[in-house]
Amino acid sequence: MIKNLENIVLDDLDKCVLRALQVDGRLSNVELARKISLSPPATHTRLKRLERDGYIRHYTAVVDREKAGYDLLCFIHISLQMHQVMQVEKFREATRKMPEVLECHHITGEYDYLLKVALRNRKDLEKFVVDKITPIPGVARIHTSLALAEIKSTMALPLD
Description:
By secondary structure, the chain is an alpha+beta fold. Helix content is 36%, strand content 21%. It folds into 2 domains: 2-52, Arc Repressor Mutant, subunit A; 72-146, 2-Layer Sandwich (Alpha-Beta Plaits).
């Protein structure tokens, strides 16, 4: 059984539901019920509880980045000059508004933040760094790495 911080317990059927939906989020309730060997009404109730309790945040289509024309996947490390509350919040708010930023993580180590960014090409990268990141108040250092190949990309958690 898995417990979260609020002591809500996931039983084996909950984990089966979550595993099945991580593979195919478009399963109908009937198909999901069949996969986990439970009645459709019981499956529906369980699914609604998992959604209500926040285990399932939302459903989405995962778009192929390269087919959509975003050839560059970049990881950008950023250090802030000072760690004052206002400066940190301005940086966070600015990155939340940037559609190119797929993920933003506050990290430990030499840098303060790690951004995962999808861009169309090298020119877009230059424009993104110069026009969007550099002007954010308090940005001290920027280090950019380009992904040469995507070896593994998943959002599925190992629910064992």
